[in-house]
């Protein structure tokens, strides 16, 4: 039986895989193309279809996750719009750097090493920071700040306080009642776009921590605003690949059916799980990703196919482990809250 | 039935993006309705 033009087992696989990616995407604001495109390549789809369908999937999942974060008041549209402008300029410059490196014959090696080091460095920094509790650590479990709520100054990381102290007009009021210079926001957006364009990745793993650590936006709002930006980058990417027939709806539709539910759960979980736990899971996900990408880069460099397979297996394993931990942490927090509620009623 | 192949690649690509957007909105609304129905049921079971 081939509903929608694909085998039933493939359909079930796509829906389940989409669900797991959706949980991570809604929770962290990253991980779509990181997981889906390599999976489609492993399944034997041509690179154009794998990348294009991955982009379309990321676009659809970002729409759903952004709508859920919007319902929770966790999207700062003004900040998102500025981030889009700065990121777009950064991506252009980043891609120019890649062309320059290609002329020198260094692109593949430099980009690969930078990608692995950046994933590892951000992963280590975020995990260490959450464990030593610099910013966001006093929130505890329970409902988190929405975009319109004032943020506790103790929850703002030191680097963000430093950046907020440069009061170059015009000044903006953004999520959490934070006052920050327009030029600082555009500078951070440009830097994240530069890295994104240079590495050829969506950049959620760079933007989400940048919004929190460099600008001082509360973590759930950083995730929601990052996802809002991905709606536009993913939509543009899907359109570009769609022009050349790179988007296959028989792949995107079942993946999206699963991720729509997963993204709702992941997005809602940011409102339940402790902020430090979110950062620890995010950091562990990036550390797992850096080891996996290191294997894939080594596989490409030395021409060892087994390394690519090991790298992909590691990505899927770390994604499943972190996705499972997110769901477990959410259920445990909800059960603890129910227990407190029951005790209070009694 | 609309024959997309008769249109330019830009129109076809825009239609694909539109189809994904439509599916995303339908799924968001559908799962949202399911959540509204299921949440009170789950609450009733867990607080029973």
From TrEMBL, chain A:
Ranges where the record places region Disordered: 134-153
Location of the protein in the cell: Cell membrane; Membrane
Entry keywords, A to Z: Cell membrane, Membrane, Transmembrane, Transmembrane helix
Pfam annotation, one family: TauE
InterPro entries cross-referenced by the UniProt entry: TM_pro_TauE-like
Membrane topology reported for the UniProt record: Multi-pass membrane protein
GO cellular component labels: plasma membrane
TM regions (residue ranges): 6-28, 49-67, 79-99, 106-126, 180-199, 211-239, 251-273, 280-298, 310-331
Transmembrane recorded as keyword: yes
Family as reported in the entry's similarity comment: Belongs to the 4-toluene sulfonate uptake permease (TSUP) (TC 2.A.102) family.
Official protein name in the record: Probable membrane transporter protein
Source species of the chain: Saliphagus infecundisoli
Organism classification: Archaea, Methanobacteriati, Methanobacteriota, Stenosarchaea group, Halobacteria
Automatic annotation (TrEMBL), chain B:
Keyword set, alphabetical order: Membrane, Transmembrane, Transmembrane helix
Pfam families: DUF7512
Transmembrane spans: 12-34
InterPro entries given in the database record: DUF7512
Domain of life, per lineage: Archaea
Protein name from the UniProt record: Uncharacterized protein
Organism: Saliphagus infecundisoli
